[in-house]
Amino acid sequence: MGARCSKVSLCWWPTNPKSNLNDSSDLENGESLPGFREYSLEQLRVATSGFSTDNIVSEHGEKAPNVVYKGKLKEEERWIAVKRFNKMAWPDSRQFLEEARAVGQLRNERLANLIGCCCEGEERLLVAEFMPNETLSKHLFHWENQPMKWPMRLRVALYLAQALEYCSSKGRALYHDLNAYRILFDQDGNPRLSCFGLMKNSRDGKSYSTNLAFTPPEYLRTGRVTPESVVYSFGTLLLDLLSGKHIPPSHALDLIRGKNFLMLMDSCLDGHCSNDDGTELVRLASRCLQYEPRERPNAKSLVIALTPLQKETEVPSYELMGILHGIPSPKQMVVLTPLGEACSRLDLTAIHEILEMVGYKDDEGIANELSFQMWTDQIQETLNCKKRGDAAFRAKDFTTSMESYTQFIDGGTMVSPTVFARRCLCYLINDMPQEALGDAMQAQAVSPEWPTAFYLQAAALFSLGMDSDAQETLKDGTSLESKRHKI
Description:
Layout: E1 37-38, H1 41-47, E2 67-73, E3 78-84, H2 93-104, E4 111-112, E5 114-120, E6 123-129, H3 136-141, H4 150-169, E7 183-185, E8 191-194, H5 217-222, H6 227-243, H7 249-257, H8 275-288, H9 299-306, H10 317-321, H11 338-344, H12 348-358, H13 372-394, H14 398-411, H15 417-429, H16 433-446, H17 451-463, H18 467-486
Parallel strand pairs: 1-5, 4-8
Antiparallel strand pairs: 2-3, 3-6, 5-6, 7-8
């Protein structure tokens, strides 16, 4: 349910984007989610394409101790997130099943709900709703297009408080390691709390695995998580929302005591947040971060304090977040490859990294019929242009790279779809989307079954504001990718 800085997330079930912000309805009697069930290991293996690394959405990828994959249950046409624990976790299968079933009874629109589990041999897996729009960490700390708006930050705080209040009302007040990676955004851009943190620690129910600078002081003394510890972690998240950074509570409290709390505010919020609003959120954060647990507010008090602060309550979250909106039917939904994901987000840095990593392997089989005369007279200079372009591309000197690739292409002695793809990215980085689209189409003309050409066309179309065409092109690229893997 987590995600790499570039991925992460959980769910395609619709919610009403204009619902009352004060209403975090209990979905226990609703029909939008199935009841909790046990899945076989084979079902989850098929859903995740054999636990493919391409489907990993954990923030730390395959090196994480417990890896999260996105997958699709074909029999249910449902997207899921699958958390696979390492072999040493949950040695007691009965304890694991009891915990999973208990958490699986929760149903709320503020949660990325747990819908199943798997317990076979030494394997322990959890199955949850899949959230397609990344983590709070991604949108708050690693944003690319726009910083998170103040009304959306306030909404995140309220929705999270409502999630905690719901869990408390159902006897699940403990949450392990509450942080910005545990908050995920659904298809409507609404924040949801990952249900994975509601599971007790695999061995003793005590572990609180987080950076010590952000750990509740009582946990350092006793080694136990309490409801008050969760409120302390909520306070650290309020600091994240205020500052746009992950600031240690001790440093933040020093600023607050010194009346320098405005230094906490994210500079991106200048002119968009009143001093009164900022002061109120700082005051609430400092209450949550009290050293003595009994002096902290409870979840219900957090909801009461945050409700009157809400702004632009009629504006859907996806508009505030600046994300594409639309709930595709199950047949329309596709699992994008890393390159497809990067192009869909116009993440030019990620596109560059992937093209550089793949190199020229997709040029294999491209015919370059050269006469001996051409070879002796022109080929060396053509190859030198390509080498200069590659060196500049590697060094992120995209202007020089673009010029060198242009010389290679204009030379006319060799054809390379990868050179067109690389120059396409150079054009995108230099804000020349029309030229980028032309190169992506040239790459497709040279190599008609090459998914990369379609993905880059989609990126160019997104840059030109042609989102519908871009989405269709992404689907074409994904379809070609699927055919490749089946061969």
